[in-house]
Automatic annotation (TrEMBL):
Keyword Iron listed: no
Matches recorded under InterPro entries: PhoU, PhoU-like_sf, PhoU_dom
Subcellular location: Cytoplasm
Main function: Plays a role in the regulation of phosphate uptake.
Protein known as: Phosphate-specific transport system accessory protein PhoU
Entry keyword annotation includes Signal: no
Native source species: Phaeovibrio sulfidiphilus
Principal location listed in the UniProt entry: cytoplasm
Stretches assigned to the PhoU domain: 25-112, 129-213
Record's subunit section: Homodimer.
Amino acid sequence: MTGNALREHIVRSYDNELRRLDERIARMGEIAINQTRDAIALMVHGDEQTIRRVFRYEEEMNELEYAINLHAVRLIALRQPMAGDLRLVVTSLKIAGMLERVGDYTANAARRAPHVLDHLPELPVAAPIERIGEKIISMLEQVMTALRDRDASRLERVREEDVEVDTLHTGLFRTLLEIMASDPSKIPACSNLMFVSKSLERIGDQATNIAEAAFYRITGRELPAERAKKDTSSSDMIEFVAQLARS
């Protein structure tokens, strides 16, 4: 093999390794979207067949994150990437961790399902959970499309949608607090639904974190301005407990 041919082979091999890293991130994103969609279907429609699928997805997600970590470390050690390539490798590590946490949150929501499914028909929660689900799935889809197309323009919108998710989550949280205050027999089911809602809200946070990492990956710059937060569920819970103590 001549010197030029060897160099071309090395460059082609390096490009293939970077592409393989992208493919694994894309697969993690696909799983995160499917897993989230299944968790929402479980909570809204009581589709218990999705529980096992959510947990299978979580296993694949963990395996992919591990593979990406090994792949990225190997690339850094052996290829010594620079500039944009180094940014791609480092942000792949970060994004893989964030997507894995999305898998954890969907699994956490699914684990609560057996404690709430029997109560769903009598609680006004299906519609708000479905709206939160639509938002977070849209956020994940936009982020993964932006990564695939290297289109930073849509990532600011993802952060704006996170504010809407926070608002929906806080509204649902307050509804559940009101139900618990008026009917103590509903406290176990409502408590589990609070954890479900919080897990979904956290998925929105992770989608926003991914958007910020993706923006840096594509542009080499930080997303402008701080993100706004509208989740007041923690202070609402403190106020609720204080009211119980006074009663």
